[in-house]
Design brief:
Distance between the termini: 22 Å
Number of strands: 0
Number of domains: 1
């Protein structure tokens, strides 16, 4: 797999489709404001193999597709939620009931076995979910999002090593600008509010700026990631992609 070509193509796809099209970018920002559901639906259009960034239209379909993709994600999250509740359930109940105190906090020790199991399950879901989501987008059938034999076959055709390296690289490329923005924002905000003593007005201003940066960045990163994952998926043979 040519990772350089993958990222170059995804960058050009995002640049021409979002950064270079202010009208589409604004519509995608609106899609984020609507709880992200239309953006999920837009990602589904990219997953279906659109050669260039599709138009942001037919909002009803975007909402429906986005909701369907959310449901798929929630189903995959069930084992993670269950294990998390087994680890932290007692602590959560104590917080809800108002019985949490310093002694209970100090005495709480999460199960190392359950913690290890949680990490393993999260890794497995993280590996399976991208192919599952794209299979669902292309077939339109919920069952295909959980067709594990077909999902594993697709990953095998891509190549397990290539696939895992691709997921890691995509995560890093997405994480780097996010971390730079977040830590830079926190640093500047902290200096302004506490050292320069900007007070409440400065705090509110930085909160508003943070929201604005999130709204601007979310569509760009979402489209870029979706295009990268689509290319990874399409590196498998066509008969496996559509089976």
């Amino acid at each position: 797999m040519d990772f350089g070509h993958m990222f170059g193509d995804a960058f050009a796809y995002t640049r021409d489709g979002v950064l270079g099209n202010v009208n589409r970018w604004l519509k995608l920002i609106l899609a984020v404001i609507f709880l992200g559901l239309p953006l999920n639906g837009y990602v589904m259009r990219i997953y279906r193999g659109a050669p260039s960034a599709p138009e942001v239209d037919d909002w009803g379909a975007l909402f429906v597709d986005g909701l369907k993709l959310l449901v798929v994600g929630l189903v995959y999250a069930i084992p993670i939620i269950i294990i998390t509740m087994l680890i932290y359930g007692q602590l959560f109940l104590a917080i809800v009931s108002g019985r949490l105190d310093g002694y209970m906090m100090a005495a709480f020790t999460p199960s190392l076995v359950l913690m290890l199991l949680l990490y393993i399950v999260e890794i497995i879901v993280g590996i399976i979910m991208p192919v599952a989501a794209i299979r669902f987008a292309r077939t339109g059938r919920f069952s295909e999002a959980f067709n594990f034999s077909a999902i594993l076959e697709t990953i095998g055709k891509i190549g397990w090593l290539n696939y895992i390296i691709a997921l890691i690289l995509i995560s890093i490329v997405i994480a780097v600008p996010v971390c730079v923005l977040v830590f830079g924002f926190i640093l500047v905000a902290g200096v302004t509010i506490f050292l320069v003593k900007g007070g409440l007005p400065a705090l509110l201003g930085f909160i508003a700026l943070g929201i604005l940066l999130f709204l601007l960045a979310a569509p760009v990163l979402g489209v870029f990631q979706a295009r990268c994952l689509t290319q990874v998926y399409e590196s498998a043979s066509p008969d496996v992609q559509e089976s």
